[in-house]
Each structure stands twice: as structure tokens, then as C-alpha cells.
Amino acid sequence: MQRELITIEGGRPKTRLSLVSAYAVCSLAILMPVRVRLLFTLAINFIYNHLFATGRVILSFVGRRFTGLLIFLTYFAVLGPTSLLARLLRRDYLGTADAGSFFRPKEPPDAGAERLLRPY
After folding, report:
1. Helix 34-48 crosses helix 51-74 at what angle (to 10 degrees)?
2. Residues 49, 7: contact at Cβ < 8 Å?
3. SS3 of 55, please?
């Protein structure tokens, strides 16, 4: 049995969602495009929950976008200037400047019987 969910101290308890209402909401959501479905989810969340729960959903969406923005800014503010500085100072951390080509001849496979004793 599910306990009653009380969202605000002293507030009225939330009831469970009726089965008919859940079927109606899910059926509508299936027919919608993905971008409209997000707005529909926010609206339904606001209807069935209170403002605080809807705010958490919106902030989680904003947090995802903010994380992507931070990764983008970190790349262009830290890694980009670092790589340009390394190029100006003629640093070759990967050791590719000496090689005229990345082609390396393949070593012949070990055909001895001992390789069967140690396959890895």
C-alpha cells in the first residue's frame, strides 16, 4: 500500500493518479512530436503536482543545457589556447613530427606452438 504523499508541511495529501487519467495522458503524449511532448510533460506535471515539482523538472532541463555549455566553454577557453601555445612552442607530445607517415609495417604473427599456451 502506498503512503500518502504530503508535499508541503500541513498541506493536503496527494492522491494517486487514476488509471483512466494515466491512460488518457499517455495516449495523448504518444501522438505528439518530441518537442511538443516536453512542453506537454511540463504542463501535466504542473497540473498533477505543485509548482515546486515543476520547478525541479525545469531546472533539471536547464542543468543539462548548462553542462553542455560548460563543456563547450572549457574546450575553447582551456584546451584551445593550450594547444595553440604548444604549437607556437613547437612541442610535439605525440611524437608525430619526426614520422613522415603514420604507416607502420605489420609484425608477422607468432606461428610457434607456445602462443597456444598463452592466448592472451
Report:
1. 140
2. yes
3. helix
